[in-house]
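Colleagues,

For the teaching module next term, I've prepared a clean inverse folding example: a structure given as tokens, and then the sequence designed for it. I'd like students to try predicting residues themselves before seeing the answer, so please don't circulate the second half yet.
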């Protein structure tokens, strides 16, 4: 067991000690002479004072043991039944805050706790002062009692006392400090950008703030400091960074917190894409080596994987390179083949992706049937397969596929006797996505994932534009401020769907840490790029007037990136849910259960802001929420409009 700070820090004055190592006057400080993580055998014989929370009590009849906890650690304290203080301590609830004074003694050899830094000593209690009593706890602190997340968030101040999450928040602070130091050492300067700003099309909904002084107008909380950090470059600051809060009104996911998140926002002037990579990689590698507990970390330069290649080989643009399986395109092996289901689908525009399963031929038939059932549960028609055995192919597909085609598939996938391969057939995007899901499932089934490592890569050459099947219009595929590869000439002469952008993502263990780009800093290129996406010259000037005007007065080529702090800490802490590394997160419905936000405001406040509510009718579902009060959730869901 390890509590909590990595480097104990002593607050308050340490008491003077005599030559016999006995504290002269413990009353010199009213609360503590040492922290609960500090005492060691060399303190034996000292009279010390500790303050903290009652972490755990153990009543052994004649002896009462109390584990006293503070931010820095835990110390075992003991009191004898003969003490007049015994009964009072016995009645104190866990998590009550107390001050104890007494003598440090060595533990008996058989009671030494090697997993605790203070485990060789204990404090014999001679004085006790109750500082703050605790009511009955809504859930346990000393043990994990699987309390529901909603209950934990409602009492987050108690949840944060738990060892694991307390350590996560300390880790977060140390990671941010390390990042700041590394950025400054590379010549970056930290600046702050505005929180109240104008709305910007960053791909998510803005949080809007009504203006009292300008009725009918709204500020927006920044989705990212995108335009401001580019303006820093235009202003000649060269290398900017900040640990930036960002706000997006979007749904929660395991790796995305609703409402707000933090990122290492950076921008550089007179740089190419490779220059940005060279600045980011040492920071990422250094931080993950510093806090990765010995896990191996990719050394720079990181692999560069073009977007199209990533979609083909891994089924997505955030590949987990710990997974060794590579997806292959085997469409031609099925085109015009005897396996009619795939052949007919290919004639209608489908593709076939192959997911290798090395060594899987020894698995029982039930394994393949189980995966087929799983695919149906995932909304697919099924999951075809071939088992390579005795120099040929086995299974339903192989029976209807010519031998030379089976051999071609084995050659394309690099498989042979003892292996198997699974197939996904469908439209290109859908096939790629599900093949990526199958790749992960097979990797887990065969236990192929590389352990104890962080594997980084850059995804590069993103398409500048994408076609929206719903609106039937071209739109920016990623960041609208990216410079197109080929510049103005490419925009004027090429099919927009073939134009790539100087745009990139950094990915670690299948988690996208950030997007970045070399920026479009030339007004005429910007006008043209936005016109292809359906923006008129007037609309561009209206929405991006500040940035566009700045570019007309001399702008350097510049680019940057913004790795997410929350996701970095989530990976380092090995937490599957991002809320476990945020001190006071919202729940999945974007509610702060501790502070009861969002909340209604008095009508007079709405009048000051010239806002009139136009609420939707309350839906009657006949059920209740966890609190037994459905109306509270309905109120939280209501929006407002002028």
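(Answer key — instructors only)
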């Amino acid at each position: 067991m390890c509590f909590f700070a990595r480097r104990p820090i002593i607050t308050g004055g340490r008491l003077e000690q005599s030559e016999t190592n006995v504290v002269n006057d413990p009353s010199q400080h009213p609360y503590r002479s040492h922290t609960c993580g500090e005492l060691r055998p060399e303190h034996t014989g000292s009279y010390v004072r500790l303050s903290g929370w009652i972490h755990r009590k153990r009543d052994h009849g004649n002896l009462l043991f109390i584990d006293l906890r503070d931010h820095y650690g835990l110390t075992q304290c003991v009191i004898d039944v003969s003490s007049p203080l015994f009964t009072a301590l016995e009645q104190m609830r866990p998590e009550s805050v107390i001050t104890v004074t007494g003598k440090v003694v060595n533990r008996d050899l058989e009671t030494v706790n090697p997993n605790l830094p203070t485990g060789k000593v204990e404090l014999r209690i001679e004085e006790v002062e109750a500082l703050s009593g605790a009511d009955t706890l809504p859930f346990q602190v000393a043990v994990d009692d699987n309390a529901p997340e909603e209950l934990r968030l409602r009492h987050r101040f108690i949840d944060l006392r738990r060892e694991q999450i307390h350590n996560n928040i300390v880790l977060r602070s140390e990671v941010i400090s390390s990042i700041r130091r590394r950025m400054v050492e590379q010549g970056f300067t930290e600046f702050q950008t505005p929180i109240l700003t104008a709305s910007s099309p960053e791909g998510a909904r803005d949080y809007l703030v009504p203006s009292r002084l300008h009725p009918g107008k709204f500020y927006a909380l920044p989705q990212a400091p995108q335009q401001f950090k580019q303006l820093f470059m235009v202003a000649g600051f060269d290398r900017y960074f900040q640990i930036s809060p960002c706000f997006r009104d979007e749904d929660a996911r395991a790796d995305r917190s609703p409402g707000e998140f933090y990122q290492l926002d950076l921008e550089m002037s007179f740089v190419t894409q490779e220059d940005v990579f060279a600045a980011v990689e040492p920071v990422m590698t250094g931080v993950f080596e510093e806090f990765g507990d010995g896990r191996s970390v990719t050394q720079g330069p990181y692999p560069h994987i073009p977007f199209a290649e990533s979609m083909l080989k891994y089924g997505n643009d955030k590949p987990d390179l710990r997974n060794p399986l590579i997806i292959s395109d085997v469409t031609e092996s099925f085109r015009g083949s005897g396996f009619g289901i795939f052949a007919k689908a290919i004639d209608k525009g489908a593709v076939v992706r192959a997911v290798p399963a090395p060594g899987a031929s020894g698995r029982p038939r039930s394994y393949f049937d189980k995966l087929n059932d799983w695919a149906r549960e995932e909304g697919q028609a099924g999951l075809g397969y071939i088992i390579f055995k005795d120099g040929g192919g086995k299974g339903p597909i192989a029976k209807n596929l010519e031998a030379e085609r089976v051999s071609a598939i084995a050659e394309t996938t690099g498989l042979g006797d003892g292996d198997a391969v699974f197939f996904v057939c469908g439209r290109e995007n859908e096939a790629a996505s599900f093949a990526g899901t199958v790749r992960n499932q097979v990797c887990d089934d065969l236990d192929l994932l590389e352990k104890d490592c962080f594997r980084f890569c850059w995804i590069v050459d993103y398409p500048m534009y994408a076609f929206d099947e719903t609106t039937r219009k071209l739109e920016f595929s990623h960041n609208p401020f990216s410079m197109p590869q080929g510049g103005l000439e490419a925009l004027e002469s090429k099919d927009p769907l073939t134009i790539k952008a100087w745009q990139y993502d950094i990915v670690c263990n299948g988690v996208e840490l950030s997007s970045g780009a070399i920026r479009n800093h030339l007004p005429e290129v910007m006008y043209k790029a936005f016109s292809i996406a359906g923006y008129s010259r007037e609309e561009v000037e209206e929405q991006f007037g500040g940035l566009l005007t700045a570019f007309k007065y001399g702008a350097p080529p510049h680019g940057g990136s913004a790795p997410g702090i929350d996701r970095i800490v989530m990976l380092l802490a090995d937490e599957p849910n991002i809320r476990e590394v945020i001190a006071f997160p919202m729940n999945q419905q974007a509610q702060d259960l501790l502070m009861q936000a969002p909340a209604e405001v008095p009508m007079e406040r709405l009048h000051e802001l010239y806002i009139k509510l136009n609420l939707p009718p309350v839906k009657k579902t006949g059920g209740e929420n966890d609190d037994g009060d459905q109306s509270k959730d309905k109120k939280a869901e209501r929006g407002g409009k002028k």
